Amino acid sequence: MSSHSMQKVLVVAAHPDDEALGCGGAMACHAAMGDEVAVLFMTDGVSSRLSAGQSEAATRNTAMQSAMSILGVSRFQAMTFPDNAMDSVPLLEITQVIEEFCSDWGVPDTVYTHHASDLNLDHRLTHQAVMTCFRPQPAADGKPTKILSFEVLSSTGWEGTTADSFRPNYFVDIRSTLKKKLEALDAYSEEMRPFPHARSLETAEHLARYRGASVGMPAAEAYVVQRILECVTRSEE
């Protein structure tokens, strides 16, 4: 069995539940390997709803804490940007929040975030802020070696067909953590819908099985590579 060096893994998600839908299996894998997993949420995910009140926000917050425990997250923080209205906030301000988090926690080795073509506006702006925060400047004090975009049921699949549609080229084997992913989603039961809605527990499992079968494994999560940096050295003869 190959050795594994501990990594710092950061998930930047627009709303609580996006992380479990998009990369919950990978998060649990990282935690099981001893990696330090942190999650930064941009909004509370409920304040834009006409029916939203303190009780609904409290329910979502409790669900978030349960999901973090299930997935083995060591640190998480929820910001208060306006839900489904992040375009009312300057991109610089969103980017600075990610920078401040990393300044305190440390530069991550791997970053998971939304895909640029998601239907949801908050998802797209979160992606843009992540790519802006971790732009590859030569003078940057450290940078992630890997940035991956995940898919979110009821957003990534609803964006329509464009040149930038989600076309996965990176897969993570989650056969050992699919159960934890589904448990985390069940914690967000208020956000899940009955099958055949795209955002249902059954659909989440079907997607994991389909993504796995497409690469010859029982279950997987699919990603689009935004950036991978590798240092290949060769010993002198």
Q: Helical residue percent?
A: 25-40%
Strand order of the largest sheet: 3-2-1-4-5-7-6
Order of helices and strands: EHEHEHEHEEHHE
Give the overall silhouette. Answer: globular
Q: What is the structure about, briefly put?
A:
With 237 residues, the protein is an alpha/beta fold. It contains 6 helices and 7 strands, in the order E-H-E-H-E-H-E-H-E-E-H-H-E. The chain is globular.
Give an account of the 3D structure.
The protein contains six helices and seven strands. It has 237 residues and is of the alpha/beta class. The chain has a seven-stranded mixed sheet with strand order 3-2-1-4-5-7-6. Helix 1 links the parallel strand 1 and strand 2. Helix 1 packs across helix 5, helix 3 packs across helix 4 and helix 5 runs antiparallel to helix 6. The longest helix is centred in the first third of the chain and has 18 residues. The model has no long low-confidence stretch (mean pLDDT 91).
Fold blueprint:
Elements: E1 8-13, H1 18-32, E2 36-41, H2 54-71, E3 75-78, H3 91-105, E4 110-113, H4 121-133, E5 146-150, E6 170-173, H5 178-187, H6 201-213, E7 220-228
Parallel strand pairs: 1-2, 1-4, 2-3, 4-5
Antiparallel strand pairs: 5-7, 6-7
Comma- or semicolon-separated keywords:
single chain; 237 residues; alpha/beta; seven-stranded mixed beta sheet; 7 strands; globular
